[in-house]
Amino acid sequence: MTAPTKNKKLLSWVDEVKAMCKPERVVWCDGSKTEYDRLMSEMVASGMAIKLNEEKRPGCYAFNSDPSDVARVENRTYIASLKESDAGPTNNWIDPVELKKTMTGHYDGCMRSRTMYVIPFSMGPISSPIAKIGVQITDSPYVVCNMHLMTRVSNKVLELLGDAGEFIPCLHSVGAPLNPGQRDSHWPCAPIEQKYIAHFPEENLIWSYGSGYGGNALLGKKCLALRIASSMACREGWMAEHMLILRFTNPQGRKFHIAAAFPSACGKTNLAMLQSNVPGWKVETIGDDIAWMKPGPDGRLYAINPEAGFFGVAPGTSVKTNPMALATCSKNSIFTNVVVTDELDVWWEGMDVECTGGTDWKNKPWKPGLKDPNGHEVKGAHPNSRFTAPAHQCPVLCEDWESSAGVPIDIFVFGGRRSTTMPLVHEAFNFDHGVFLGATTASEPTAAALDAQHLRFDPFAMTPFIGYHVGDYFAHWLKMGDKLGNKAPRCFYVNWFRKDSKGKWLWPGYGDNSRVLKWMCERVEGKVGAEETPIGLMPKDGDLDLSGLKITAEDWRELMKVDKHLFRETLNDVREYLAKIGHKLPHRIMEQYEALKKRID
Prior knowledge:
This protein is α+β, with helices and mostly antiparallel strands. Helix content is about 25%, strand content about 20%. It has two domains: about 210 residues, Phosphoenolpyruvate Carboxykinase, domain 1 (3-Layer(aba) Sandwich); about 270 residues, Phosphoenolpyruvate Carboxykinase, domain 3 (Alpha-Beta Complex), CATH 3.90.228.20. About 0% of the residues have low confidence.
């Protein structure tokens, strides 16, 4: 196949990989529907894919992975910076020379009897000043089809690249070469000890080997969009964050743009696709996972969603929790590790629809209530099962979601899952205080944990995704605040998960979270005041719209209570956590810690 580009760097790299991996043939991908349909037909024929019922789920396919390849493998994910000190305490570090030597040994002949696909893609709208170009090489047609949905794969990317343009090289192999006549697995991958997801930040280079699943294999996602991009953003003066982006429009037509960072199991995708319960206020989705943000000509911070699709967790997604997500994946989507029903539709735990039976994620017959030999219930879908869906199918997608310039961010929101201590909402005193709130975001390890002593800190929901030292990352946030000055977004902290002493949720959540967003927007507008407390600025009585909610005065007081004793315990955990960051922890973070400690005491 003739290469559709004259970019010398790209052609040289493709030749180098071809010589190392030794594929049977090379295919340059163009992102067309013809290409997508052809690859899907080939995977159905090979037994890798299941074509779903065209009437129930048009244009949809299901896949089941190997049981050893079901999620990101953080313990096999590396930041191979030149200096170990640049990787910091949140990353696994290996010397880049040593790692390349090891991985080159695995790559040697790894694509034997397979096709090597070259995927040119754009993260962000093609030609946007905030977007970046990547090229992924892979031997997985499953990856190609997912990249079609999650990124912008197109020959237009190669045209933009031209003869000498820069791109981010992303090399991936499932690590399962085939001998002549050998039958392929339905999900080829390498053993766990041979899996590597490697990032070389000084070279803007990504190498992945051995896994065919999710963020391990779709290298535009966490690898490029966060780990490598965060490192690039620090050097170049912008931000790559694990944040949803939404537009919230008031009855007068004023548009507010909110970027929010939440650790896992805190309702991030649900908030991104929220249906507002506040009359006259409308929520529109721009992105559910990643935000790239740069200062614009007017000095404000502008954000794009670099992705073109949603890679959502299936279990728990229902008409009640996220009807817009269900509508988005109703057609032209890929499902991985869910139940395929007898009617060739899909099902998962928490979907809240009836399922009489089918095939589970391990390709075994399954029906609800099935027990294993020990009497334990057998889950039909894997807890990390996924749907990959095109963003343009989302019913509440914002018309400006592909704006080349991005949207101006008014508000940053941070939050974790806390059954006690943290009130429903509070606002930072200033941007430095907001950075402190983001840097010390924490969740309880399980929904049942009530002990504030046991916290899992996840700064800015970025712990697994910061491509360099976490202390330098905090410093970059502070530097961006200095750069933006009085045009920096306002910062808020939320906790949807507070409970009373009997374990009952105090806040209804879901669509009613829009009431909290409304208060934030009215704070930005200057329409409502706030009460100063030791931890930040909180709503005055009557300013947060509770009309129509059945919340007792007692529950409201508990929901907004600032218990100094519990906060002192949390501060002990914060101090212990910050100490682990070491000498690169910015002194301004510790100043915020000391100021909070003084206010609490």
